Amino acid sequence: MNDDAKLQKNKTLILTQTNPEVDVMFKSWLEYNLHADVIFKNVSKPLRALRRIVAMKMPARFLSCWLNNWKTELNNYNTIIIHASELTNHLPEYIHRINPQIRIIYWYWNPVNNHTLPRLVTDSNVEFWTFDKGDKKKYHMKFNIQYYTGTTNIQKENVKYDVYFIGHDKGRKKKINDILKKIKNAGLKYKVDILSDNSKRHIAYNIVKKRIMAAKAILEVNQKGQTGYTLRALESLFLEKKLITTNKSIVNENFYSSKNIFVVDSDDWGKLPSIITSPYDKTVNHFKNKYDINAWFSNFFD
After folding, report:
1. Predicted TM-score (pTM) of this structure
2. What is the pLDDT of residue 47?
3. Do 161 and 192 meet the contact criterion of CB atoms below 8 Å apart?
4. Is 163 within 8 Å of 215 (Cβ atoms)?
C-alpha cells in the first residue's frame, strides 16, 4: 500500500448504524485498517423511538446528544462515508456545521426507497454514491461496486442441498416461492431462510457461510426495481458457488459466466440441473480483487 492510500484510510471515517459485535462487514473495515464508528449512542428502547423522531423530523442541531464520540473527532478527518438510511438525512448538515470543509460521501448500499430519497438530505454539499446502476441513472449519482470480505476462515462442508437462499421478505416472498417451486420441479433440493421484515431473528454470518458452503448454488432475488447485484452474487464469485438470480443485468458484469450463473426468466429451466452440477468455471476468479474492500474504498478517490 502506498503512502497516499494509507493517508486516505487514516483521514476517512465510515459511519453506519449497526451492532459492531456481530456485524461482519464492520469488523472487516477495522481489519482492513479503515476507521469506522456507529452513528448513534446505544440507548434504551423507549429512547430509540424518541431518537428516531429527532433524527427524521428535527433540525440537524438537535442531533448532537444522540451521537457517538466520533462527533468530537471530525476535524481529524478529510472524508466521511455515511451509510444512507432514513435516520441520516440530517447528518451531513450536522457534520458540515462542525467542519465545513469535510468531504461527505452518502453511500447507498441498498436501493433507494421513499424514506431515503436523495432530495430528503438537507445538505446540498454531498456526493451521492450507489451500488445500483438503475439508481445511479435515475438520481444522477456516482457508482461504486458491491464488495465482499468473507474469504477468511472458509471451511469445506459436506454438500447437503443444491440451492440456498437467505434474506428478508422485502415484498419478495411470492417471487421467492415461485422460483422455489421451479427449483423443486427441476429435481433439486433447497434450504431457505426467509426472515420477516420486522423479525428480531438474526442468523450470524458464520452460520450463513456454513450453509452456503453446504450448497451447490445460491439464490439471489432482487427487490422490485433493483438492478444492482447483491452480496449473494459476490458470495457466488468468492466462494465459488453457482448462482440463480432474477437480476437480468448481471450478464453485463465482468464476472458473469453462463456456466456459473442462471438468470431467471431468461435461461431455460431445463438447463438448471446441468448448470448446478457441473464444475465451477474458475476463469472468472481473477476478478475477485476488483470486488474487495480495498477496491471499493479506492474507487471513492480514483
Report:
1. 0.89
2. 92
3. no
4. yes
Q: How do residues 172-181 score in pLDDT, each as one tens digit?
A: 889 999 999 9
**What is the DSSP code string of 11-60?**
TEEEEE-S-TTT-HHHHHHHHTT-EEEESB----HHHHHHHHHHHHHS-G
pLDDT for the residue numbered 227: 86
Strand partners, 163: 190, 217
pLDDT at 1: 60
- Asked whether the CA dihedral 187, 240, 175, 252 is positive or negative, the reply is negative
CB atoms within 10 A of CB 121: 20
Pick the closest to residue 21 from 213, 254, 198, 204 (CA basis). 204
Contact by Cβ (8 Å): 194, 165: yes
Task: Report which residue type is found at 38.
Answer: V
C-alpha angle with apex 113: 111 to 118, nearest 5 degrees? 90
203 and 166 Cβ atoms separated by less than 8 Å? yes
Between CA 19 and CA 101 the distance in angstroms is: 30
**CB atoms < 10 A from the CB of 238, how many?**
21
Count of CB atoms situated within 10 Å of the CB of 261: 25
Residues in the chain: 302
Residue whose C-alpha cell is 420441479: 185
Band of pLDDT at residue 200, cut at 50, 70 and 90: low
Adjacent-strand bridge partners of 261: 243
CB 290 within 8 A of CB 145: yes
Provide the b/e sequence for 181-215 (b: ≥16 CB within 10 Å): eebeeeebebbeebeeeeeeeeeebeebbebbbeb
Nearest alpha-carbon partner for 231 in 257, 205, 195, 251: 205
Q: Which domains does the chain have, with CATH numbers?
A: 3-144 (3.40.50), 161-290 (3.40.50.2000)
Residue pLDDT, tens place only, 202-231: 788 889 999 999 999 999 999 888 888 889
Residue with cell 428502547: 45
